[in-house]
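Training component of the fellowship. As part of building independent skills, the fellow (R.M.) carried out the full modelling exercise for a liganded target. The chosen ligand was tryptophan. The inputs are recorded below so that the supervisory panel can assess the work.
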Amino acid sequence: MAQMTVTPWEVRGAIDYDRLIEIFGVKPLTDDLVKLTEKIAGENHLFLRRRVFYAHRDYDVFLKRYTEGGAVALYTGRGPSSRVHLGHLVPWIFTKWLQERLGLELYFQLTDDEKFLYHREYSLEHTNSMAYENLLDLIALGFDPSKTHVIVDSDDIALLYKIAVRVAKKITASVVKSVFGFTDSTNIGMYFFPSLQIAMCFLPSELRREVVLVLIPAAIDQDPYWRVARDIATSLGYPKPAQIHSKFLPGLGPEGKMSSSKPETAIYTTDPPEQVYRKIMNAFTSGQPTAAMQRKLGGNPDRCPVFAYYAMLFEEDDKKLEERYHRCRNGELLCGECKRELAERVAKFIEEHQRRRGKAKDIVESFLLRTKIRSRR
Ligand code: TRP
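Fellow's submitted model of the complex:
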């Protein structure tokens, strides 16, 4: 098994999620918190009951403040390095659900600057245009434009800068070196960038001129930013941001998360549905080399990306999921059939997403924070 690496810029190897809880010092999401969410939202979500979202910091504090009528908001974001794939949608789908069920404002940050600074090969024009491309995917998920406020770092820096410099003054080079692993050959843009991702935690408080507690639904690799944010929040007069952390959607290969660095193992939202179908039919599974052996020995759904897709996104019904699990284990369900069913569901999902994404172009402006602020003046 390849060694596990989990940083905001690189996720590699077989991921041990319990270990991450220990390394990052976050808390596991308890049954009580899942039940409380269900009660408040009036509905369960499979991401919670199946622990796709599985860890947190102060999620309990956030829910308490929400139920007491205190000021709260959601914050999440995207580093627009390339096209959006299914894995990116996981935190967004959950954020959309929270927005809808709890009636919350969402602040969404597109960090074109971060991706430009990190990737040697990308121009700022590329990451900036990707930001607006990726925004179409966000809109396609059905976020409420009146409650969803998007900023693109390089175009909207004025909205963040005054907070960011105050944040930056609190963070030393030695802190970012140890938290993010920066070295003396890391460019200085990267050294400043965390101030922008952190500043966004405090933007709702500034805009609304009250103390707003933000909850950040995001994949767990973003946690290092939030550690630093929480360390300095109080000294700047802001509440510590709360987090709810998700696991990664696995890639279609034998190991690791869905990743743009391995395009054949990722399903992009803009892939033609036939290609989506083909990618899934070519996926790695935990099956045996021959059908006869599969019938005799069964497969291993616990280590199979195809099963993970059913569990994380494409099988809502708990009983059907369990049946699939057992039929795989006892050799009744062969991988070809299991993949074909999944391929159909995913291709259909992508087709619908593309239809909504096509319409999103017309309403981009209504999501941009700068447009809203301008028209308020
Ligand atoms: N750094 C994130 C990325 O590379 C982008 C991002 C900015 C983000 N703010 C966020 C992600 C808040 C999650 C939550 O994708």
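The panel noted the following from the submitted structure. Strands lie at 5-7, 10-12, 27-28, 53-57, 72-78, 106-110, 148-152, 213-219, 242-246. The mean pLDDT is 96.
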